[in-house]
Amino acid sequence: MTHQTDRLSAARAQFPITRGKVYFDTANMASPPIGVTNALTAFFARQQRTGGDKAAWLGEVETTRLKAAQLLDCAPEEIAFVKNTSEGLNIAANAIDWRVGDNVVLPSREHPNNVFPWLNLRRLGVEVRLVPDNGALVDARMLRPHVDSRTRAIAVADVSFQPGQRNDLASLGALCQDLGAHLVVDGVQAIGLLRVQPRKLGVSMWAASALALAAQSGAGRLSSSPDLRASSASSGV
Fold this sequence. Notes:
By secondary structure, the chain is of the alpha/beta class. It has helices at 2-13, 34-50, 54-72, 85-93, 116-119, 140-143, 169-179, 226-235; strands spanning 79-82, 103-107, 127-131, 151-157, 182-186, 205-208, 220-224.
């Protein structure tokens, strides 16, 4: 018990904000640990002294990409770094080769980050189907009545920002496979807190900022499946 208490105290010491607050807002704001701020300070201090080492910096990027892939249980080449969840989902929405009359299906209570990128596709003649969900668990049974042969994507949060349930990505991935559609996931409420396996669940694109990992802003992750990248490349998207 003492050892566990010591570990907890050491972890809390990394977050000075806990001296005065009980802090839970990691998916919206971030209070990075001392280790993160020390690493950033050391990086800029080296750059200040030496002008920077591009090769070393690129090596660090690839090391970080490998760690991100291990966290998401996918291959490093599937990981791209983006500014935040919003940018990742915007890239995802525009990575599909849309045709006039296609549609995308999503729960109506999704976070705006996972709504506006799809609404923007209306200019391309894409129908955006917002399914009333009333805060219920989102699964294939809920969305199946709203999909058809022109459904190209289903967009959903891994964990809802409101009221906070974890949706059934496995059934949604299976539904997308039946449709030949893409499952696009907002993962910011899950990363770092729950085990995330996009490929195993049939997710085509999965995006999250680094805030939930207590990192600095501007270091989000976008994971995309090999099949999607191949189809995007062949279509010139």
